[in-house]
Structures are given as C-alpha cells and as structure tokens.
Amino acid sequence: MNRAQWWVLTATDPDAPAPSDLKAAATALAAEFPAPLPGLIAQTEPDNVQRWVLRDRPRLQQWSKGRSTLVGDAAHPTSPYAAYGAGMSIEDGYFLGRALRGVDLTDLTAVQRALQSYEDPRKPHTARQVQQAWILGQVFHHAPAPLRPVRDFILDHTLLLQKVAGDTNPREIQKQLALIQD
Fold it and tell me: What are the CA-CA distances from residue 178 to residues 91, 125, 174, 175, 181 (Å)?
C-alpha cells in the first residue's frame, strides 16, 4: 500500500475559525501546484485532512528545574521551516545522557549541575536554529503582497536561500555533531 503525506501551508490568523471544509480549502490552495500534489489531495479522505496552526513561543530562559529538564520542542519549539526540530531533539537526548553519565542521581546538587551542563551549551545553537526557522517562515508566508514577486525572483534566481539555509545551516549542524564523541 502506497502512503503519502502532503502539506499545504498558508499564512492565516491563528485565531480565525478553520474552514468548514478543510479538504476543499486545501484543494483550492493547491490548484495551481504541479502534480502530484493536487492528485494526492483528491485521493485523501476528508476525515484525514487536518489543520495545524503554527504558533511562535518566546524563548525559555531556563530549561531545567530541580531534577527535571526539557528537551526538543518543549525546550526550543521550532517551526518547520528549518526542518531540524527532530534532529535537535535527538541531539538533546545525546547531550543530556552524556551530562548525566556517572552522576549520582540521589544527589540533587549533582543532578542540577549536570542538567545545567546539558542546557547551557545547547542554548546558543538551538536559539540560532529557531530564529532561522522563524525568519524563513516570515519570508515564505508573511511578505507584503507587493514584495512577493521580488521575493520569488530572488529565491528562484539567486543562491541566497542556498547560502542561508543550504550552506550555513549544515555547517552549524556539523559543529554539533562533531561534539558527539562516543
């Protein structure tokens, strides 16, 4: 059985009610897209079409408290425009495990130090990634109408997006992966 997942993204007021017919709304948004998107939507059962409102949340100053800490989107929620939220969650798990390795878990002070030693070096990297994803979302979905043709021309005919997201971001990710030593 072939399975596919498709997405149609559009800027919208997050507090506005959802369209009464999500499949019809997705069909209308995708009407000018090339195959296979219109066909995928046509083959999708209406009950399988969902609305997912993206919301930005301010950065947390502290991820850890007592014996608890946050990882992944709970600590640094990332909009999908950088396609790296799951990757950062996996990295968080590694760095958290490394920070807790050998720590006496009955010693609250030692646990708190370990959690802070996990959190502190992760914050600058995750903050850059979250900010980049937010900026890309703004560029893709919130550019003023008169600027959209200029934006599209620049993204379609220059290496700007490649330089920002295709070159810089992988270098930043490689720096994080280089810290994984065992």
Answer: 11, 13, 6, 5, 7
